[in-house]
Amino acid sequence: MIEIKKDIYWAGIKDWGLRVFHGHELSTHRGSTYNAYIIRDEKTVLVDTVWDPYKEEFAEKLDKHIGLKNIDMIVINHVETDHSGALEYIMEKIPDTPIYCTKNGAEAIRRHFHKDWNINVVKTGDRVKTGKYELVFVEMQMIHWPDSMLTYVDGANLVLSNDAFGQHYSAMFLFNDQVDNCELYQEAIKYYANILTPFSSLIKKKIEQIKSMNLTIDMIAPSHGVIWRENPLQIIDKYYEWSQDYSEDFVVIIYDTMYDATKTMAYAIGQGLLNKGVPYKMFRSSVSDSSDIITEVFRSKGIIVGSCTVNNTVLRSISGLLGEIKGLRFKNKLAASFGSYGWSGEAPKKISQELEEAGFKVPLKPIGIKYRPDSDELDQCVEFGEKFAEEILKG
Fold first, then answer.
1. Are 174 and 297 within one domain?
2. Residue 390 annotated as catalytic
3. Is 72 in the active site?
4. The domain spanning residue 259 has which CATH number?
5. 78 an active-site residue?
6. Annotated catalytic, 83?
7. Of these residues, 82, 256, 296, 377, which one is catalytic?
8. 128 and 101, same structural domain?
């Protein structure tokens, strides 16, 4: 265990080898951590646990350092099993220990574990004194589950924020001032883009509510990744910025292709963007990491998506990516579509329709070219890119 504040300890697990998360939905190139915390006050408090595969290692660590039977209460900020996975194993050894969680958390605990434990429901503003410290609970509903909350340790000026402000990032050290901040922010924005984007309006309101509570914050300790101790408010400010239809000055071109006709179109469209001074990033969806693509979509002002037509529809990698994009509910971004075809040619129109349904503004009609584009058709693709750039530059 590592002391992060006086008598408050990190008691988590570093999972260096993790490469996928949420099943196989999210990539984790730099591993992750499952951060649990121990408060050793007049009452000893365990805040969150770790993922089920590490339950025995976690319990042994707690027993060695504090003794499981010395735990007076458990706070579960969020019931998703990467945080609560070891709870049942712990409760088998200390079955009467009170658990503190939100109302939705109580339901989720019962539905996950089917046990009749001593559950105490708390809401925003409720307090529990542990000795020199006092726990203040703040509900974080739908950031990113209905049960989510954070726990503020009054007297330590410490926010135990669970998923908010975290990153899937297993680093050599524990604190933000000890690690490569380029890596840190790559993982922080990727986490936000792929997990929290649909809840941006709620995040904005919640940050405004937290600021109105006038809490003194010296440290933010999330449940994944490193702890923010140097200028901890920087990540709150970033979340506030990201929550407001965030974009940077570039376009993302995403395509898949069978025999390179659609690829050739993509590069011609990219040239059109550059002709008007709009930079772009290019991804072939079938060989690129979808979580990384989603991160760039989040950062972009707009996207241009292309696929050849196969079986009257789009290639599977584009279909899957469009499904992800729709679920994330991006706001205030432009989009367009393109593709090659042999006879029926539905792909560009299908992509355009799905982008509109996903909430993108689609100012241009899709462009489709039969078989391989000739020089005149490539000029049309360049012009298509130029027209999209003009839409981007309108602001």
1. no
2. no
3. no
4. 3.40.50.360
5. yes
6. no
7. 82
8. yes
